[in-house]
Write a structure and sequence with these properties.
Elements lengths: L2 H23 L3 H8 L12 H18 L12 H9 L3 E2 L2 H17 L4 H15 L3 E2 L5 H17 L6 H7 L4 E6 L6 H14 L4 E6 L6 H12 L3 E2 L7 H15 L3 E6 L6 H15 L3 E7 L4 H14 L3 E5 L8 H10 L3 E5 L7 E3 L2 H9 L3
Helix pairs in contact: 1-5, 1-7, 2-4, 3-4, 5-6, 6-7, 7-15, 9-10, 11-12, 13-14
The structure holds guanosine-5'-triphosphate.
Protein backbone atom coordinates (compact mmCIF):
# COMPACT_ATOMS: atom_id res chain seq x y z
CA UNK A 1 0.00 0.00 0.00
CA UNK A 2 1.32 3.43 -1.05
CA UNK A 3 4.77 1.97 -1.81
CA UNK A 4 5.54 4.49 -4.55
CA UNK A 5 4.96 7.39 -2.18
CA UNK A 6 7.01 5.70 0.50
CA UNK A 7 9.99 5.42 -1.86
CA UNK A 8 9.67 9.05 -2.85
CA UNK A 9 9.62 10.26 0.75
CA UNK A 10 12.69 8.24 1.48
CA UNK A 11 14.30 9.91 -1.57
CA UNK A 12 13.82 13.28 0.14
CA UNK A 13 15.63 12.06 3.24
CA UNK A 14 18.56 10.91 1.11
CA UNK A 15 18.60 14.22 -0.79
CA UNK A 16 18.86 16.27 2.38
CA UNK A 17 21.48 13.97 3.80
CA UNK A 18 23.53 14.39 0.68
CA UNK A 19 23.23 18.15 0.57
CA UNK A 20 24.26 18.59 4.20
CA UNK A 21 27.10 16.07 4.02
CA UNK A 22 29.79 18.57 3.01
CA UNK A 23 29.06 20.82 5.95
CA UNK A 24 29.26 17.93 8.32
CA UNK A 25 32.80 17.22 7.15
CA UNK A 26 33.99 20.80 6.74
CA UNK A 27 32.86 23.22 9.43
CA UNK A 28 32.11 26.78 8.34
CA UNK A 29 35.07 28.16 10.30
CA UNK A 30 36.60 30.42 7.69
CA UNK A 31 33.29 31.88 6.71
CA UNK A 32 32.19 32.32 10.28
CA UNK A 33 35.40 34.01 11.33
CA UNK A 34 35.43 36.32 8.37
CA UNK A 35 31.86 37.44 8.84
CA UNK A 36 31.79 37.72 12.58
CA UNK A 37 34.94 39.78 13.00
CA UNK A 38 36.71 37.05 14.93
CA UNK A 39 33.98 36.75 17.50
CA UNK A 40 34.54 33.06 17.23
CA UNK A 41 38.17 32.41 17.68
CA UNK A 42 40.18 29.71 16.04
CA UNK A 43 39.81 27.15 18.74
CA UNK A 44 36.06 27.27 18.40
CA UNK A 45 36.48 25.63 15.08
CA UNK A 46 38.82 22.93 16.21
CA UNK A 47 37.87 19.37 16.85
CA UNK A 48 37.56 20.15 20.53
CA UNK A 49 34.07 21.55 20.28
CA UNK A 50 33.20 20.67 23.84
CA UNK A 51 35.88 22.91 25.31
CA UNK A 52 35.03 25.67 22.90
CA UNK A 53 31.40 25.51 23.84
CA UNK A 54 31.75 27.01 27.30
CA UNK A 55 34.18 29.82 26.60
CA UNK A 56 33.27 30.81 23.09
CA UNK A 57 29.54 30.40 23.26
CA UNK A 58 29.42 32.68 26.27
CA UNK A 59 31.38 35.28 24.38
CA UNK A 60 29.25 34.95 21.29
CA UNK A 61 26.07 35.20 23.30
CA UNK A 62 27.19 38.44 24.91
CA UNK A 63 28.02 39.92 21.56
CA UNK A 64 24.71 38.83 20.15
CA UNK A 65 22.83 40.34 23.03
CA UNK A 66 24.58 43.64 22.44
CA UNK A 67 23.75 43.56 18.76
CA UNK A 68 20.27 42.27 17.93
CA UNK A 69 21.14 42.08 14.20
CA UNK A 70 23.49 39.28 14.97
CA UNK A 71 20.60 36.99 15.78
CA UNK A 72 19.75 36.93 12.09
CA UNK A 73 16.48 36.95 10.20
CA UNK A 74 13.71 34.38 10.53
CA UNK A 75 14.76 32.48 7.47
CA UNK A 76 18.51 32.51 7.47
CA UNK A 77 20.69 31.46 10.31
CA UNK A 78 23.03 34.30 11.26
CA UNK A 79 26.74 33.96 11.49
CA UNK A 80 26.23 33.91 15.20
CA UNK A 81 23.80 31.03 15.01
CA UNK A 82 26.03 29.08 12.71
CA UNK A 83 29.12 29.71 14.80
CA UNK A 84 27.30 28.81 17.96
CA UNK A 85 25.85 25.74 16.39
CA UNK A 86 29.24 24.54 15.33
CA UNK A 87 30.83 25.38 18.66
CA UNK A 88 28.20 23.33 20.41
CA UNK A 89 28.57 20.45 18.01
CA UNK A 90 25.44 21.21 15.99
CA UNK A 91 24.88 21.76 12.33
CA UNK A 92 22.39 24.21 10.96
CA UNK A 93 20.26 23.35 7.92
CA UNK A 94 20.28 26.27 5.52
CA UNK A 95 18.01 27.37 2.68
CA UNK A 96 20.51 26.25 0.06
CA UNK A 97 20.72 22.77 1.58
CA UNK A 98 17.00 22.37 1.17
CA UNK A 99 16.45 24.04 -2.18
CA UNK A 100 17.02 21.02 -4.40
CA UNK A 101 15.63 18.37 -2.03
CA UNK A 102 12.45 20.42 -1.57
CA UNK A 103 12.07 20.85 -5.31
CA UNK A 104 12.47 17.11 -5.75
CA UNK A 105 10.00 16.49 -2.94
CA UNK A 106 7.45 18.76 -4.56
CA UNK A 107 7.82 16.93 -7.87
CA UNK A 108 7.55 13.59 -6.10
CA UNK A 109 4.37 14.61 -4.27
CA UNK A 110 2.76 15.94 -7.45
CA UNK A 111 3.74 12.79 -9.35
CA UNK A 112 2.09 10.84 -6.55
CA UNK A 113 -1.15 12.68 -7.25
CA UNK A 114 -0.98 14.77 -4.11
CA UNK A 115 -3.16 17.81 -4.70
CA UNK A 116 -1.19 21.02 -5.39
CA UNK A 117 -2.33 22.99 -2.31
CA UNK A 118 -1.61 19.97 -0.12
CA UNK A 119 1.88 19.55 -1.59
CA UNK A 120 2.57 23.24 -0.97
CA UNK A 121 1.38 23.00 2.60
CA UNK A 122 3.64 19.99 3.21
CA UNK A 123 6.61 21.81 1.68
CA UNK A 124 6.04 24.99 3.70
CA UNK A 125 5.76 23.06 6.86
CA UNK A 126 8.88 20.95 6.21
CA UNK A 127 10.83 24.08 5.22
CA UNK A 128 9.72 25.93 8.32
CA UNK A 129 10.60 23.18 10.71
CA UNK A 130 13.98 22.44 9.16
CA UNK A 131 15.37 25.82 8.23
CA UNK A 132 17.83 27.15 10.73
CA UNK A 133 17.22 24.02 12.73
CA UNK A 134 20.31 22.93 14.52
CA UNK A 135 21.05 19.31 14.39
CA UNK A 136 22.58 17.84 17.48
CA UNK A 137 25.45 15.47 17.03
CA UNK A 138 23.34 12.69 18.41
CA UNK A 139 20.59 13.39 15.89
CA UNK A 140 21.21 12.38 12.31
CA UNK A 141 20.00 14.48 9.41
CA UNK A 142 17.73 11.55 8.55
CA UNK A 143 16.04 11.82 11.93
CA UNK A 144 15.55 15.54 11.52
CA UNK A 145 14.00 15.03 8.07
CA UNK A 146 11.81 12.27 9.39
CA UNK A 147 10.44 14.38 12.20
CA UNK A 148 9.77 17.35 9.88
CA UNK A 149 8.04 15.12 7.32
CA UNK A 150 6.09 13.29 9.98
CA UNK A 151 4.63 16.49 11.41
CA UNK A 152 3.94 17.99 7.98
CA UNK A 153 2.11 14.87 6.79
CA UNK A 154 0.10 14.32 9.95
CA UNK A 155 -1.00 17.96 9.85
CA UNK A 156 -2.61 17.57 6.43
CA UNK A 157 -3.83 13.97 6.73
CA UNK A 158 -5.45 14.28 10.16
CA UNK A 159 -7.66 17.26 9.27
CA UNK A 160 -11.13 16.82 10.78
CA UNK A 161 -10.48 13.38 12.33
CA UNK A 162 -13.08 12.22 14.81
CA UNK A 163 -13.77 9.03 16.73
CA UNK A 164 -16.14 7.15 14.41
CA UNK A 165 -16.85 4.30 16.77
CA UNK A 166 -17.36 6.73 19.66
CA UNK A 167 -19.86 8.65 17.61
CA UNK A 168 -21.80 5.48 16.79
CA UNK A 169 -21.74 4.45 20.43
CA UNK A 170 -23.03 7.79 21.70
CA UNK A 171 -25.63 8.52 19.03
CA UNK A 172 -29.29 7.85 19.57
CA UNK A 173 -30.27 4.64 17.74
CA UNK A 174 -30.88 3.96 15.00
CA UNK A 175 -27.89 5.78 13.54
CA UNK A 176 -28.44 6.54 9.86
CA UNK A 177 -25.44 6.63 7.55
CA UNK A 178 -25.87 7.55 3.89
CA UNK A 179 -23.17 6.65 1.35
CA UNK A 180 -22.47 8.76 -1.74
CA UNK A 181 -19.95 8.48 -4.53
CA UNK A 182 -19.81 7.52 -8.18
CA UNK A 183 -20.63 4.02 -9.42
CA UNK A 184 -18.09 1.26 -9.47
CA UNK A 185 -15.71 2.62 -6.83
CA UNK A 186 -16.70 0.06 -4.22
CA UNK A 187 -19.59 1.85 -2.52
CA UNK A 188 -21.87 -1.16 -2.15
CA UNK A 189 -19.00 -3.40 -1.10
CA UNK A 190 -17.98 -0.80 1.50
CA UNK A 191 -21.50 -0.77 2.92
CA UNK A 192 -21.33 -4.55 3.30
CA UNK A 193 -17.87 -4.31 4.87
CA UNK A 194 -19.03 -1.63 7.28
CA UNK A 195 -22.00 -3.77 8.26
CA UNK A 196 -19.51 -6.51 9.21
CA UNK A 197 -17.22 -4.03 10.96
CA UNK A 198 -20.16 -2.85 13.05
CA UNK A 199 -21.28 -6.41 13.79
CA UNK A 200 -17.78 -7.20 15.06
CA UNK A 201 -18.27 -4.36 17.56
CA UNK A 202 -21.71 -5.46 18.63
CA UNK A 203 -23.88 -3.20 16.44
CA UNK A 204 -26.67 -4.60 14.28
CA UNK A 205 -27.40 -2.98 10.93
CA UNK A 206 -29.92 -3.02 8.09
CA UNK A 207 -29.09 -2.14 4.49
CA UNK A 208 -31.33 0.23 2.50
CA UNK A 209 -30.87 0.55 -1.22
CA UNK A 210 -31.39 4.18 -2.15
CA UNK A 211 -29.83 3.53 -5.56
CA UNK A 212 -33.17 3.24 -7.33
CA UNK A 213 -31.63 4.70 -10.47
CA UNK A 214 -29.38 1.96 -11.78
CA UNK A 215 -30.70 -1.32 -13.15
CA UNK A 216 -29.30 -4.25 -11.21
CA UNK A 217 -28.51 -2.22 -8.09
CA UNK A 218 -31.05 -4.13 -5.98
CA UNK A 219 -29.66 -7.49 -7.03
CA UNK A 220 -26.10 -6.40 -6.33
CA UNK A 221 -26.73 -5.21 -2.78
CA UNK A 222 -29.07 -8.16 -2.11
CA UNK A 223 -26.22 -10.53 -2.81
CA UNK A 224 -24.18 -8.90 -0.05
CA UNK A 225 -27.16 -8.80 2.32
CA UNK A 226 -27.86 -12.50 1.76
CA UNK A 227 -24.24 -13.48 2.21
CA UNK A 228 -24.00 -11.54 5.45
CA UNK A 229 -27.46 -12.46 6.70
CA UNK A 230 -28.60 -8.83 6.89
CA UNK A 231 -32.03 -7.47 6.10
CA UNK A 232 -32.35 -5.26 3.04
CA UNK A 233 -34.95 -2.59 2.40
CA UNK A 234 -35.46 -1.85 -1.28
CA UNK A 235 -38.05 -0.44 -3.67
CA UNK A 236 -38.47 -0.99 -7.38
CA UNK A 237 -36.14 0.72 -9.79
CA UNK A 238 -37.25 4.32 -10.36
CA UNK A 239 -38.60 4.72 -6.81
CA UNK A 240 -37.79 7.56 -4.45
CA UNK A 241 -34.39 7.03 -2.74
CA UNK A 242 -35.42 9.15 0.26
CA UNK A 243 -38.48 6.91 0.75
CA UNK A 244 -36.32 3.75 0.76
CA UNK A 245 -33.95 5.08 3.36
CA UNK A 246 -36.90 6.39 5.39
CA UNK A 247 -38.37 2.86 5.34
CA UNK A 248 -34.98 1.58 6.47
CA UNK A 249 -35.08 3.91 9.48
CA UNK A 250 -38.65 2.83 10.34
CA UNK A 251 -37.62 -0.82 10.04
CA UNK A 252 -34.65 -0.22 12.34
CA UNK A 253 -36.82 1.55 14.91
CA UNK A 254 -39.38 -1.25 14.88
CA UNK A 255 -36.76 -3.99 15.10
CA UNK A 256 -34.21 -2.43 17.44
CA UNK A 257 -31.54 -2.29 14.77
CA UNK A 258 -28.63 0.01 15.66
CA UNK A 259 -27.52 1.34 12.29
CA UNK A 260 -29.14 1.99 8.90
CA UNK A 261 -26.67 1.86 6.00
CA UNK A 262 -28.20 3.65 3.00
CA UNK A 263 -26.77 3.31 -0.50
CA UNK A 264 -27.46 6.05 -3.09
CA UNK A 265 -27.10 6.41 -6.85
CA UNK A 266 -23.65 7.55 -7.86
CA UNK A 267 -24.49 9.62 -10.88
CA UNK A 268 -27.76 11.02 -12.14
CA UNK A 269 -28.35 12.95 -15.34
CA UNK A 270 -26.89 16.12 -13.94
CA UNK A 271 -25.15 17.14 -10.78
CA UNK A 272 -28.26 19.21 -10.00
CA UNK A 273 -30.28 15.98 -9.89
CA UNK A 274 -27.69 14.43 -7.67
CA UNK A 275 -27.76 17.40 -5.35
CA UNK A 276 -31.57 17.41 -5.30
CA UNK A 277 -31.57 13.70 -4.43
CA UNK A 278 -29.14 14.14 -1.57
CA UNK A 279 -30.97 17.24 -0.33
CA UNK A 280 -34.23 15.34 -0.28
CA UNK A 281 -32.64 12.48 1.68
CA UNK A 282 -31.29 15.09 4.11
CA UNK A 283 -34.75 16.62 4.51
CA UNK A 284 -36.71 13.38 4.81
CA UNK A 285 -34.30 11.25 6.80
CA UNK A 286 -31.85 13.73 8.36
CA UNK A 287 -28.99 11.20 8.37
CA UNK A 288 -26.49 11.22 11.20
CA UNK A 289 -23.64 10.95 8.73
CA UNK A 290 -23.08 11.18 4.99
CA UNK A 291 -19.97 9.33 3.90
CA UNK A 292 -18.30 9.82 0.55
CA UNK A 293 -16.80 6.69 -1.03
CA UNK A 294 -14.15 6.72 -3.73
CA UNK A 295 -11.20 4.65 -4.77
CA UNK A 296 -7.69 5.55 -3.65
CA UNK A 297 -6.38 4.45 -7.03
CA UNK A 298 -8.31 7.30 -8.70
CA UNK A 299 -5.81 9.75 -7.17
CA UNK A 300 -6.47 13.34 -8.18
CA UNK A 301 -9.89 12.42 -9.65
CA UNK A 302 -10.98 11.07 -6.29
CA UNK A 303 -9.82 14.28 -4.62
CA UNK A 304 -11.78 16.41 -7.10
CA UNK A 305 -14.90 14.28 -6.67
CA UNK A 306 -14.62 14.45 -2.89
CA UNK A 307 -14.68 18.23 -3.20
CA UNK A 308 -17.66 18.17 -5.59
CA UNK A 309 -19.69 15.83 -3.40
CA UNK A 310 -18.82 17.80 -0.29
CA UNK A 311 -19.99 20.99 -1.99
CA UNK A 312 -23.22 19.25 -3.03
CA UNK A 313 -24.00 17.24 0.06
CA UNK A 314 -21.79 18.35 2.95
CA UNK A 315 -20.14 15.01 3.63
CA UNK A 316 -18.99 14.08 7.13
CA UNK A 317 -16.13 11.87 6.09
CA UNK A 318 -14.72 9.62 3.40
CA UNK A 319 -13.97 5.98 2.75
CA UNK A 320 -11.12 5.30 0.33
CA UNK A 321 -11.40 1.89 -1.28
CA UNK A 322 -8.79 -0.16 -3.12
CA UNK A 323 -5.96 1.25 -1.02
CA UNK A 324 -4.41 -2.22 -1.41
CA UNK A 325 -3.98 -1.53 -5.12
CA UNK A 326 -2.77 2.06 -4.76
CA UNK A 327 0.90 2.86 -4.89
CA UNK A 328 0.70 6.65 -5.14
CA UNK A 329 -1.13 7.51 -1.91
CA UNK A 330 -2.06 10.95 -3.29
CA UNK A 331 -5.77 10.69 -2.50
CA UNK A 332 -5.10 9.40 1.02
CA UNK A 333 -2.81 12.37 1.65
CA UNK A 334 -5.07 15.00 0.07
CA UNK A 335 -8.78 14.30 0.64
CA UNK A 336 -9.02 15.52 4.24
CA UNK A 337 -7.05 18.72 3.66
CA UNK A 338 -8.99 19.61 0.51
CA UNK A 339 -12.47 18.91 1.91
CA UNK A 340 -11.86 19.60 5.60
CA UNK A 341 -13.54 16.22 6.25
CA UNK A 342 -11.60 13.20 7.47
CA UNK A 343 -10.91 9.89 5.80
CA UNK A 344 -12.53 7.40 8.16
CA UNK A 345 -11.81 4.02 6.57
CA UNK A 346 -9.54 2.45 3.99
CA UNK A 347 -10.74 -0.46 1.89
CA UNK A 348 -7.87 -2.91 1.65
CA UNK A 349 -9.19 -5.81 -0.40
CA UNK A 350 -12.27 -7.59 -1.70
CA UNK A 351 -13.16 -9.54 1.44
CA UNK A 352 -15.71 -8.29 3.98
CA UNK A 353 -12.98 -7.93 6.58
CA UNK A 354 -10.82 -5.84 4.32
CA UNK A 355 -11.68 -2.50 5.85
CA UNK A 356 -9.46 -0.59 8.26
CA UNK A 357 -10.24 2.35 10.47
CA UNK A 358 -8.10 5.18 9.15
CA UNK A 359 -5.35 6.23 11.54
CA UNK A 360 -3.29 9.20 10.24
CA UNK A 361 -0.46 8.64 12.70
CA UNK A 362 -0.18 4.97 11.78
CA UNK A 363 -0.26 5.76 8.07
CA UNK A 364 2.50 8.37 8.35
CA UNK A 365 4.64 6.04 10.42
CA UNK A 366 4.31 3.32 7.80
CA UNK A 367 5.13 5.81 5.04
CA UNK A 368 8.30 6.90 6.82
CA UNK A 369 9.30 3.44 7.97
CA UNK A 370 12.64 2.61 6.36
CA UNK A 371 12.12 -1.16 6.47
N1 LIG B 1 -8.97 -4.56 -4.28
C1 LIG B 1 -10.08 -4.03 -3.79
N2 LIG B 1 -11.25 -4.14 -4.47
C2 LIG B 1 -12.35 -3.57 -3.96
C3 LIG B 1 -12.34 -2.86 -2.74
N3 LIG B 1 -13.59 -2.39 -2.51
C4 LIG B 1 -14.35 -2.82 -3.53
N4 LIG B 1 -13.62 -3.53 -4.41
C5 LIG B 1 -14.08 -4.13 -5.66
O1 LIG B 1 -14.49 -3.10 -6.54
C6 LIG B 1 -15.52 -3.57 -7.39
C7 LIG B 1 -16.67 -2.56 -7.39
O2 LIG B 1 -17.28 -2.57 -6.14
P1 LIG B 1 -18.83 -2.26 -5.94
O3 LIG B 1 -19.09 -2.32 -4.50
O4 LIG B 1 -19.60 -3.08 -6.85
O5 LIG B 1 -18.84 -0.76 -6.42
P2 LIG B 1 -20.00 0.29 -6.25
O6 LIG B 1 -19.40 1.62 -6.07
O7 LIG B 1 -21.01 -0.13 -5.29
O8 LIG B 1 -20.58 0.24 -7.66
P3 LIG B 1 -22.07 0.50 -7.99
O9 LIG B 1 -22.85 -0.50 -7.21
O10 LIG B 1 -22.01 0.28 -9.45
O11 LIG B 1 -22.32 1.90 -7.56
C8 LIG B 1 -15.88 -4.93 -6.85
O12 LIG B 1 -15.28 -5.90 -7.66
C9 LIG B 1 -15.30 -4.97 -5.45
O13 LIG B 1 -14.95 -6.26 -5.02
C10 LIG B 1 -11.06 -2.74 -2.03
O14 LIG B 1 -10.93 -2.10 -0.98
N5 LIG B 1 -9.98 -3.33 -2.62
Amino acid sequence: MFDGLKDKLSGFREDVEESTEVEEEAPPEAEANAESGAVVEDDAATADAAAAETAETAEVEETAAADPDETGSDDEPSTFQRAKAFATGRIIIEEEDLEEPLWNLEMALLESDVEMSVAEQILDSVRESMLGESRKQVETTGELVESALHDALVDVIAVGQFDFEGRIAEAEKPVTIVFTGVNGVGKTTSIAKLSEWLADRGYSSVLANGDTYRAGANEQIREHADRLGRDLISHDQGGDPAAVIYDGVEYAEANDVDVVLGDTAGRLHTSDDLMAQLEKIDRVVDPDMTLFVDEAVAGQDAVNRAKEFDDAAAIDGAILTKADADSSGGAAISVAYVTGKPILFLGTGQGYDDITLFDPEELVESLLDEE
